[in-house]
Batch of 3 targets.
Target 1
Amino acid sequence: MILQFINLAVTLVRLIATAMLILFFWLATRKLQLVPGRVQSMGEMAVDFVRKGIAEESLGREIGRRYTPILVVIFFGVLFMNITGILPFLNIAGVLRHRHAAGVRAPLLRHLHRGGRQARAAGSSSRASSSRPGCRGPSTSS
C-alpha cells in the first residue's frame, strides 16, 4: 500500500514538473519579438546555454546544433524534476527511481553514438568533433 502511494506521488510530481516546463516555454514563446521581453529572454538564454555550453562544446558545432532539441528536452526535464525535490509540499524528486534515469540515458546514448559513427563515416575529422576546445588529444610521445 505504501509503495503504491509513493508511485502515485512520484507520478503526480512528474506531471506537475512537466506542466511547469510546458508553461515556462509556452510563456517564453507565445509573443516572440525582435527585442525580447523578460520571459522570452530567459527562455532564449536557457536554450542558448544548452546549445553553446553543452551541445556545441561536447559534440562540435555541426553535430551539436543537430542534437540541441533533444538535449534541451532532457536537460530541462531532469532540471524541473529535480527542482520539485526542494519545493514546499512536493518534496519528492520526479527522478526518484534509478530506472527513470536509465530509461532516459540509454536511448540518448544510443542515438548520440549512432550520430557520431555516421559523422566519422562521412569523412569529418573525428578529432575536431570529439575533443573539447583547448584540450590536447592523446600524446604520441613515449
Target 2
Amino acid sequence: MRLNIGWLIAVIFVLVGVLFLSGHGWQLIAGYNTAPKEKKTKYDLNRLYLVNGVGFLVIGMLVAVMNSFVDDWSLVLQILFLAVFIVLVMVLVILNGTWCMKNEKSN
C-alpha cells in the first residue's frame, strides 16, 4: 500500500464528512455561505450537515476502496465505480435541494 494522492483525497473527504456531522463547516457547503439571509432561512442547517456529512463519508470510503484495489481493477469495475460516484453526487444535490428545505407548513 503506497501513500499517494488517492489516499490524501480519501482522508480529506472523510475529515470534511466528520466536520459536517459534528455540526460545523457551513462555510464549506456550496452556495449556502454566499446566499442571502432570506434564502438561508429556507434551509434546515442540521439536515444539510447530515446529508453532506454522510455523503462526504461515503465518497471518502469509495475513494479509499478504489485506491486500495486500483491495480487489480478491470475497466468494468472502474466504470462501475465512476457510475456509483456520479449517482451519489446526483443524490446529494437532489437531497440538498429538497429534503434539506424547511417545511413551510411548520412556520
Target 3
Amino acid sequence: MTKKNSHSRYREKNRVLLRAKQAMRRAGPAAPSWLTPKHHADIIAVYEDAEDWNIRFDANFVVHHIEALVQVDEETGEHIACGLHVPWNLMATTSWMNQKLGNSNKELRPIRDGIEVCEPWEDDDDDIPW
C-alpha cells in the first residue's frame, strides 16, 4: 500500500467532511468563532444531504448560502451585505439554482407553470418565546 493510495482512499471516504471543512476555510470571517460542535455537525449534515441527493437523484446538488456571504446590488454592483456560514443559512440545492441566485439577495421561491409563487407561511409554531 502506497501513501498516495491510502491518501486517495481517505479523501474518497471522507469527501463530505473535507468539503465542509474546505467551505469553512473559504468562508473566512463569515464563519463565526462562536459556532459550537453541534453547529459544526449541523453544517456537515447539510453537506451530507447534498451528497446523498447527488447519488439519489443523479443530479449536481451543492450547498447554497441562503443569505449570500457577499451580496452584491445587481444594479450598481456594490457590496451591500454579508451572510454567515452557519447551519441556519445553508441549504442543499441544485448547482443550477445556486448559480441562478448567485451573490444576490433573491429569495428561493417555488415555481409552478413557469411562474414564481409566493405562498404564505403555514407554520403555526412560533419559535419566538415572547
